[in-house]
Fold:
Amino acid sequence: MSEIPTELRYTSSHEWVEDQGDGTVTLGVTDHAQDALGDLVFVELPEVGQELAAGDACAVVESVKAASDVYAPVKGSVVEVNEELEEHPEYVNEDPYGKGWLVRLELAEGVGLDDLLDAAAYQAVVEAEEE
Amino acid sequence: MGKRTALYQTHKALGAKIVDFGGWDMPLHYGSQIEEHRQVRRAAGMFDVSHMTVVDLRGAGARDCLRRILANDVGRLPGPGRALYSCMLTPDGGVLDDLITYWMDEQWYRVVVNAATRDKDLAWMREQASAFEVNLAERTDLAMLAVQGPRAVEIVAGVLDSRSREAAGALRPFQAVAAGGLFIGRTGYTGEDGFELILPADEAVARWEELREAGAAPCGLGARDTLRLEAGLNLYGSDMDESTTPLESGLGWTVAWQPEERRFIGREALEAQRARGVARRLVGLVLEGRGVLRDHQKVHAGDAGDGEITSGSFSPTLGRAIALARVPAGTGDRCTVEVRGRELAARVVEPPFVRNGRVLVELD
Structure:
């Protein structure tokens, strides 16, 4: 059973989003996503300053098995990326909601997180996939 | 639901992630594919390969039949108890399958073919065999375990009875023996030393547990794939198939041209191709920077032309992406690979990348 922290928001494409309370959000891939991918060996991150619309591909996580796009859950601009993943892509497997974070976004004007899934709704997405 | 080996429940109990492989529900990994890969390189891992198809050919015509349907020549084997790797070809020289043949005694050869090609292989072999005095029997009653790694020989020896242990201990690479109800070949698909064991399916679970207790780590097909890629061993359906010949698949060494009077199926097509000149070859690639090479990515070899990756992945031993690729014959020692719209630099190398735990290619 994968871990789904209740304080985070989610997308149906298996990203998590954490509100930093200062107009920025941190995002990564969920425990369910990292488990499905298997051992990660490479993470490709966006450039700081890059403007993203909701749904834009903003990173790629690659396991031994496959490459998978990570999508921006909301509109915003990249203010920070987790550079440690260059040397340690396995952090995404080991700690997907912590050391394995991918990108920090500054939210675009007027953008909130209300349209994203809460933990219960995301849980339902995961269960539907596992059936 | 796919077909299941005798060990399916054992895999589930060990927490395996199960995937479809050629119609079989097989373990991809038991937690970490990379850790399993490393276990095989530094100690010993164990694979359930019971999905593979074991076929026994018995009869006075078995040898002549195999000399007709295989591009390599079982007539080259110096005696029983020897194994031979070969392609089985179409009349056009395309690869129907690659397989291992064990010569067990005067009237018995055992052939192990791929799971995904089982149906067509059996149909083809039966059709060809009708011209010979030979009986073909698929052995669905058997299971197959591969124990591989520098400690594999010692671990297997430790669980055998004294008679089998003695027989197994005498085996050199590419030799095999049937002893004590167990078939033991010193063969594998990882680039490490080890054994492949063929045994009655109803004994597979007990054997597996014994071997696991003795130190062989359960490994899934995911690690098997990265291990064989590092070892430069082709995968049927990816690196070669009916549309490619052994000569353009890095398998020219497995074609026995001598004696000339042996008219194996596909020979004329291969001779014609050899006379024309082989336009493409299979090479190894090592990605210079970061990224991962994948099947079907495009390779650009400058004026020589374009090629394609046939098997690409990340090499845990090298810490780099590696691949097998089919490229124009004139390709030099550098190329680029198209990865998500970008051209990444790669070096062209002669496989294998890794054998017996040692890296065999220069990294920079």
Notes: Strands of chain A lie at 9-10, 15-19, 24-29, 40-44, 51-52, 57-63, 67-71, 76-81, 103-107.
